[in-house]
Amino acid sequence: MNQASARRRLAAPTLVMLPRVADSLSFLYLDVVRVVQDDTGVCALIDGPRGTDRVYLPVAALSCVLLGPGTSITQPALATIARHGTSLVCVGSGAVRCYAGILPDSLTTAWLERQTRAWADDTTRLAVAVRMYERRFGVQVPENTTLAQLRGLEGQRVKALYKQLAQRYRTGRFKRNYDPAAWDQQDPVNLALSAANACLYGVVHAAVLALGCSPALGFIHAGTQHAFVYDIADLYKAEVTIPLAFSLHAATDPEREARLRLRDQFRLLRLLPRIVIDIQNLLDPDNATSRTTPKETLVELWDPVVGPVPAGVNYGNEPADLEESPW
């Protein structure tokens, strides 16, 4: 091995070296910039009256990069972000809509397999959905409670919360309204709530991808590629985004204020570690504390009898396989 290749291997981050998603910063929203890779790292080029400013991005410490309108990114910069395990989510203006996310390649499938097993069986899927409602309400759901009853209970609690916050901030009667076609005609609370929820979706999306789970396999929501993201984000709205939106009822720019304050709240509440732990507890409450240890060799072969077996091994010389093979 020559010196140049050895230096590249030492500089390239391995899975064990990468920070856990729970230890990362929450998100960084960018718009009207060009993201490039130079000799030092990933940076954003911002055109201004005094020329082009270069701002370096701490991609290794970020959980999620939200790319808004007017952004472009080069392939080397995208490759560096992927190597560091940072999720990249394409969003609309002000991070109001989440369009797509890029999954880091350096992941195991342990939690994806647990999610798929729980989702594919109606009994276990219902059990996960019930645990989600219990997590939101903070109470144990009676055994014979149906999902329809839980949805009704959820609606009552959200309405009561809206009424309580409207009285506290003296905003008058509040009605949730999300109309992209008449965005500028909405009141500040609705604008702030939509922007805050969109940022919350982006961070939850990043946590889901970082665990290797599928954003599409939801347990309460269905029919969208972000069903599981909506499931998990609903756990925190009553605590985070809804009170924040009402507190911005008099803001001149509620969308921007919601994004700035939400980033601070994510840090103060340590929301990312909570998201990771909640997902693990919901999918596999009995074994959620057994964290998967990162390994350099992640590829295995499935065996229905003995379980996973190592890949990259020639099994053709094993006598039992040769004797029983029909070929």
UniProtKB/TrEMBL annotation:
Query: EC annotation?
Result: 3.1.-.-
What molecular functions are annotated in GO for this chain?
A: DNA binding; DNA endonuclease activity; hydrolase activity; metal ion binding
Q: Which positions bind Mn(2+)? A: E154, H221, D234
| InterPro entries registered for this protein in UniProt | Cas1 (IPR050646), Cas1_I-E (IPR033641), CRISPR-assoc_Cas1 (IPR002729), CRISPR-assoc_Cas1_C (IPR042206), CRISPR-assoc_Cas1_ECOLI (IPR019851), CRISPR-assoc_Cas1_N (IPR042211)
Q: Which GO terms of type biological process are on file?
A: defense response to virus; maintenance of CRISPR repeat elements
**What is annotated about its quaternary structure and interactions?**
Homodimer, forms a heterotetramer with a Cas2 homodimer.
Q: Which family does it belong to?
A: Belongs to the CRISPR-associated endonuclease Cas1 family.
Q: What is this protein called?
A: CRISPR-associated endonuclease Cas1
Q: According to the entry, what is the taxonomic lineage of the organism?
A: Bacteria, Bacillati, Actinomycetota, Actinomycetes, Kitasatosporales
